[in-house]
Amino acid sequence: xxxxxxxxxxxxxxxxxxxxxxxxxxxxxxxxxxxxxxxxxxxxxxxxxxxxxxxxxxxxxxxxxxxxxxxxxxxxxxxxxxxxxxxxxxxxxxxxxxxxxxxxxxxxxxxxxxxxxxxxxxxxxxxxxxxxxxxxxxxxxxxxxxxxxxxxxxxxxxxxxxxxxxxxxxxxxxxxxxxxxxxxxxxxxxxxxxxxxxxx
Length: 200
Fold this sequence. Notes:
Elements: E1 6-13, E2 20-31, E3 37-50, E4 55-62, H1 64-67, E5 76-85, E6 92-100, E7 106-109, E8 114-115, E9 120-127, E10 137-143, E11 146-152, E12 160-167, E13 173-182, E14 189-198
Parallel strand pairs: 8-14
Antiparallel strand pairs: 1-4, 2-3, 2-5, 5-6, 7-9, 9-12, 10-11, 10-13, 13-14
């Protein structure tokens, strides 16, 4: 989840009966959806001894403080581990994992029944998932081809807040409500919901 530390486990198994020593070069970078690197955020090297038919787990931790300021709106981190078996010339294995961090900070609550020409109250709750305060918070609400910009107060670390929003649907059928939350530390965190509007 965006704003939290990322923990991964690299599992190495020695499938042979011989003892093996494996050198592992681990790196992590923030990337665009095209896989182009934005910034390298972690680099580490370790050596692992694997007994006959034995396995080992290597824990990899990427704190928010490493990736926070280098993440793009794609919210992708690419982690690679190059595993080289020592004393066996040219035996290498590359393991790759792309992580897409999830946003879980916009929640939209709508009444169970929404009817044409009757005012509806929505609750939009939003959060700062980061361990630091955020300023210049803005909510863009798009509904019925109209966009409303709402300037919000600053949010403390991991703070959640909510606003109430009233509108009156003018026709029956599905209606999409989209919410876009931005601040000085991240932008374009989206939430949306489809509202089924019943005839009056």
